[in-house]
Amino acid sequence: MTKIFGMICTVALFGALTVSCTGNKDDEGFNVEYEQYQLKNGLNVILHQDKSDPIVAMATIVHVGSNREKPGRTGFAHFFEHMSFNDSENVPKGANRKMIPELGGTRNGGTWSDGTIYYEVVPKDAFDKLLWIDSDRLGYMINTVDVGTLEREKQVVKNEKRQRVDNRAYGHTSHVIKKNLYPKDHPYNWTVIGDLDDLQSATLEDVREFYDTYYVPSNATLVIAGDIDIEETKKKVELWFGEIAAGPEVEPIEPWAVELEESKKLFHVDNFAKLPEIRLTFPTVEQYHEDAYALDALGTLLSSGKNAALYKTIVEKEKLAPGVSSYHRAEEIAGTFTIRVRANAGVKLDDVYAAINTSLDKFATEGFTDEQLAKIKAQTETSFYYAIESILDKALQLGIYNEYAGSPDFIKQDIKNIKAVSRQDVMRVFKKYIHNKPAIITSFVPKTDEALVLAGSTKANVVEEEIKRNAEQKFVENEVLSFEKTPTKHDRSEPPLTDLPALSIPNVWESASTNGMRVLGIEQTELPVVNFSITVSGGQALDTKDKLGTAFLMAQLMNEGTANKTPQQLEEAIGLLGASIRVSAGKESVSIRGNTLAKNFEATLALVNEILLQPRWDPSEFERLKARRLTSIKQAQGNPNAIASQAFMKQLYGADHLAGSPTGGTQSTVSDISLEDLKRYYTANMTPKNAAFHVVGDVKQAEVEKALLQLSAWDGDQVTIPEQPSIKNVEKPKLYFIDLPNAKQSVIYIGKTVVSANDKYFYPIEFANMRLGGGISARLAQTLRIEKGYTYGAYSYVPATGYQSPFIASSQVRSNVTLESLEVFKDLIGNYRATFTEEDLGVARNMTIKSNSRRFETLNSLLSMLETISRFDKPKNYIEQEQNFVINAKLIDLHNAIETFLDEQEMIYLVVGDAASQLDRMNGLGYGEPILLDSDGNLIGSDDSSSDSVLGAGQ
C-alpha cells in the first residue's frame, strides 16, 4: 500500500497494472471520491460516481498542446483536435459530431498551449455509445484520414482563426506578445491557433506523425463521472480501451522560464479597434510553482475592486479608462503576468503608462489591507464549489490535476495553497517579478489614432491576410474510404442504447412575500451554496425614448454603495461573505442576481435589502458609469457581430420598437441622462408588485421566507408595462449591406419576427427549428461548415421575449464566399418544409427527450427554469408539457409551424463585410440591389445617416 498526494492506493498486478485510489477527506472535510487505475497499455483512468442526475460525463485529456509543435507547423495540436472529430475505423463519417447531439448529449473539445481535451455529457442510456466513439477516436482514427478531410478541416480552422483573431479588435495581441517574449525555439513562441501558412502546408504525413507520437494511451487520462456502476464501468473501459496499442513513451516537457533584459515596446494600428489599449506582460513562473499562487492573488489585488491600486489611480483619480485588469497565467513550462488597460477614446497611452507606474509605486509602499486578502479567500471558496458544480466540471478538474499535477487528489492541495497565500508572499512576488521589472509593452490603437501610441514603440510584425476570390484550395471528400482495419479481439461495432432514464422534474415550491412579490424556489443540497435572483418587470421598456439607457445606468449605479456604505465598503461586505450580488437591466426587466455560501444566505439578503431600498446615488460614481457606458458604445463600433446584430434588429423592428433600440442607449440618449432621471425611474418603477424572487440551492422554504422578511419595507404600486407595436414582416425578401473595409469575414444575419414566448406556438417554432440550425448536427452547420468549409459555425435560434420574438439565422463566413453562403441559407431555409421528414421529426424528438435528463443539473439551469415560469407565466410543469408536445407531435404539425412562421420569403438579409470585394456580387442572390446602411444601421443618404452610434449591449 502506498500514499500519493493524500490518496490511499492499492497496487495490484493481474493482466493490467491497476492502481486503485479513493480520494480521502482532508482536514477541512472536503472530499471528491473517485477510483483511479491504469490499463496495461498505460491509459490512466479515473472513475467518479454521482447518481444525482441520470447522466454520464466523459473527458479525455491528451497531454499535447501547441508546446509540442515544430516551428513551421504551428497550430497543429488545435488542427489535430478538429481532425479527431471526423470518422474513425469503426465509427462512420459524421457520427462523432452528429450522433452525440442527436442522442441528447453535448460534446466538444479544446486545445491550449499544454494539452488537448475532448469531453461529452450524455443521458446514461448512451454511455456505451460514448465509450465506443471515444475509444475509436483515441485508438483507431488515423487510417481514415484522407486528403479531402484534411483540406476541409484546414478551411474550418482558418475560418476559426479569422473569427477569433483576424476579424476582431486586438485579436493579434497574443501573437505580438509571444513572438517578442519567448525565443524562437521556445514552445510558447507561437499562439495555439498558429499561422495560416503553417496550417495550409500541413500534410497527411504530418497528421500521422503527430498521432503516432502523442495520441498514445500513456499520454492521456480518461475520466468518467456520473450515474455509473464502478465495477461494471471498469469492465467496459477494459473492453473498449484495453486493446489500443500502447505506443511510444512521451518524454515530459520541462519548465522553461524566460527573462527580459529590458522592456520591448511594440505597436499595431488595428483595423477594428475603436479605443487605444496598452498591455504590459511580465515573464513569471510555471503552474503549481509556489510563487504562482501569490501572483494569482496579486492580479486580483491590483485591479479588482474599488480599493485596488490600479483602479484607484487609472479609473477613479485620472479617469483615463472605464476599467483595468491584471491577472496571472501560469502554464506548464512558463507563466506571464498581464496588466491591461483599454483606455477612453482619444487618451494617449503615454498617460496610461505613467498612471500604471504610479499605481505600482504606490502599491510598493502602501500594499493592501488584511480585509482585501480575506475577501479574495472568501470569494475563492465560493468559486471553488461552483468550479465542481456539474458532473462534467468534476471530470475535467480531476483529469487536469492528474495530467499536470500528478494526481487528481491535488484538487485539495490546490485550494489549500490558494488559501495559504500570505501578505509577505504577495509583496515578495510583486517585487521579484513586477515592480520596476522589464516587460513586453504593446500599444494597439485605432487606425485613425496612431498618435496615441506609447512613445518609443516600434511597429509590430503583424501579417494581415489578403482575401482573394477563389483562393482556397478545392477539396472533395471521399464518401467511402478504402483502408485496412486494425484487427481487434473485441467486436467494435456500434453498441445499442440501454434503458432511457425517466424525466424527473425538481419540486418547485411557491409562496408570496408580505409586500406582494411572487416567490419561487427549489431546494437542492448537493453543494453548500445558494443562487437567487429578483426580477422587476420593465427595464428599458419604461425608458423615455429620448433617454434610452436610463434603466441600464440606474441598475449599474445601484451596485455602487448604499446610503450607509461607500462603494468600497459594500464591495468588501459582499466579498467577505464569499458572495456576489449584481444589479443589471435589460430590455424587459431589472434584475438583482447573486450567489453565496448557504451559511451566509440571510446575511447576503440583508445586503440585497440595503442595495434595493437605500441606493447611494453617488454623483461621482454616476459620472464615472456614464462615461464608461459611452466608452462601451464607442468600443462596440469595432465589433462586426455587434454592428450586424443591432442593425439587423433595427431593420426588423424599426427604431420605435423596444427591440429595434439598443440595450443601454445611444451616444446621444446616454449623454442627456442625469442623476435625477435615474432617481425618477427608481421611484416610479421599482416595485415588488412587478417583481418575482427565485432561489435554488441548499436552503429550505422556511429559511427563505424568514430571510425575505428583511425586504418587507420595500413597497409600491403595480406598474403597467407598455405594449410594443405589432410588427408586420416583409412581403418579399430584402438584402441590406454594411461596409466594413478590409474585413476578413462577412457577418450574415437573416430572419423575421414570429410570436412572443408566452404564445402557444412559441415552443412548436423552437422545436421545428432544431433540425435547421439548432446545433452542429443541424442543416446549417452541417452544410456551411462540414460540407463546404465556409465557416466555423452557423446556427438559427428564437430568443424568448415578451414581444414578437425574432427568428435569427446567422454565421460569420470567409469573405470570398459571402454570396455562396447566402445562397446556402436561402436554399436551406426556403426548402426547409419540403425537406423536413419523419426522420427529422424522430431525431428532433429523440434529442429533446434525452437532453431533458441534463436540464436540471446546475443551480443556474434550475434558476433559469424558475425565471421562465415567472417571466412568461408558465405552469410549474411547463417542461413536462413541452415534452408531451414533442412525444405527440405529428409531421403535419411541424410542417404547419415551418410554413406559417419560418417562411423565407418574409425574411430580411443583412451582410456586414468588405464592400470593395463583395458588394458587386450581391445581386447574384436574386433579391435586387442591396440596400446600403451605415454602421449604425441607418440608410445611407437618409436624414438619419449622420446620427450617432446606436450600438448597445446587444441582444
From TrEMBL:
<dbReference type="Pfam" id="PF05193">
    <property type="entry name" value="Peptidase_M16_C"/>
</dbReference>
<dbReference type="InterPro" id="IPR050361">
    <property type="entry name" value="MPP/UQCRC_Complex"/>
</dbReference>
<protein>
    <submittedName>
        <fullName>Pitrilysin family protein</fullName>
    </submittedName>
</protein>
<dbReference type="InterPro" id="IPR011249">
    <property type="entry name" value="Metalloenz_LuxS/M16"/>
</dbReference>
<comment type="similarity">
    <text>Belongs to the peptidase M16 family.</text>
</comment>
<dbReference type="Pfam" id="PF00675">
    <property type="entry name" value="Peptidase_M16"/>
</dbReference>
<feature type="domain" description="Peptidase M16 N-terminal">
    <location>
        <begin position="523"/>
        <end position="659"/>
    </location>
</feature>
<dbReference type="InterPro" id="IPR011765">
    <property type="entry name" value="Pept_M16_N"/>
</dbReference>
<feature type="domain" description="Peptidase M16 C-terminal">
    <location>
        <begin position="202"/>
        <end position="379"/>
    </location>
</feature>
<dbReference type="GO" id="GO:0046872">
    <property type="term" value="F:metal ion binding"/>
</dbReference>
<feature type="domain" description="Peptidase M16 N-terminal">
    <location>
        <begin position="45"/>
        <end position="160"/>
    </location>
</feature>
<feature type="domain" description="Peptidase M16 C-terminal">
    <location>
        <begin position="672"/>
        <end position="846"/>
    </location>
</feature>
<dbReference type="InterPro" id="IPR007863">
    <property type="entry name" value="Peptidase_M16_C"/>
</dbReference>
